[in-house]
Design goal:
Elements lengths: L8 H32 L15 H26 L10 E8 L2 E5 L5 E2 L2 E4 L3 E7 L5 E5 L4 E5 L5 E6 L4 E7 L12 E6 L1 H9 L4 H5 L2 H8 L25 E5 L5 E5 L2 H9 L5 E2 L16 H11 L4
Parallel strand pairs: 1-5, 4-10
Antiparallel strand pairs: 1-2, 2-3, 5-8, 6-7, 6-9, 9-10, 11-12, 11-13
Amino acid sequence: MNQDASNFVQGVDTAFVVILGICLFFLIGITVVMIYFVVKYHKKRHPKPVDVKDNLTLEITWTVIPTLLVLVMFWYGWLGYEPMRKVPEGALTIKATGQMWAWIFEYENGKVSDNLVVPIGKPVKLNLSSPDVLHSLYIPAFRIKEDVVPGLNNYMWFRSDKLGEYDILCAEYCGVRHSYMLSKVIVKPVDEYLEWYNAPADTTKKALPVGLQVLQRNGCVTCHSTDGSKIVGPSFKGLFGNTSLVVNESGDKIKMTVDETYIRRSIYEPNTDLVDGYNKGLMVSYKDRVNEEEIKEIVKYLKTLK
C-alpha cells in the first residue's frame, strides 16, 4: 500500500481532480455545442435571420447548474484547506525563515539547519518569517504552500508518514536568485531524528571559521561569494583592507577603506554607503540578528580572504 508524502495529499488531489473534471466537462460540452450551432445555424440553412425569443427554462438551467458546480468545487476545496489551519496539540514547532535567497530552520533547542529535518508520523508546525521581501514556502510533494510575509506572523503544518527527502521551493518571485532558493524536507525515523536533534553541531561546520558560520547561518553567502565571483553583492574575497567606491546617502561617489567600521555599518545600515554598481534596497539591516561579537568574527574571517 502506497503512503502519501503528507496528510494533505489526498484532500488536495481530490479537489484538483474534481475541479479538473468539471473544467474538462465544460470544455468538451461547450465545444460540441458550439460546433453543433455553427452547423445547424449556418447561413446556407438560414439565409434570412430571425430573432430568438427568450427561454425561461434555459436561463434558469444555465444559472442553477453552474452555481451548484461552483459550490461543489468550493466544498472540495474547503475540505482540503480547512485542516491545514488546524494545528494538532503537541506539534513540533520550528521557525522557518525565508530570506534572499535561502531557507533557514531553527528548532526549539536552538539547533539551526538549512534543511528541514522532521520525524516520521509527527505533526510539524512551521512558524514563517521573512526579514526582507515576500517569499512563499512550497513543498510540492506535501501539497502545501504558504506565503512568508515580512512583518506578518503566518504558519503552516503537516505530518509525513513516508520516509524520504522532498524538495522545498520558493513559489513567490523574490529577486534575481529566486530560482536558487532551494532546500529539502528530510523525513527520518523517530529514533534517527532524535539522535540528529540532540547531537552537537556538525563537526564539519565546527571546523569552519566562526565568522563563516555566521555568514552562512544568515544566508550572506547566497549574495556575496567567497571566491571573487560577482553575484548580487560584492564578493568577500579581497574585500577587507581595500578601497571601495561607494555611493553615500547624498548620492555622491566617494572612496572608502573597508575596515571594521565599514563592515559593521554595511551589516547594520546596508544602504547608507552602497558599493557603486550594486542595487540599493536588496539588503536589509541585520542589527537584530548579528551581534557585535559576531561582527568581530566576520571581520576576522574576511581578513583571511586575501
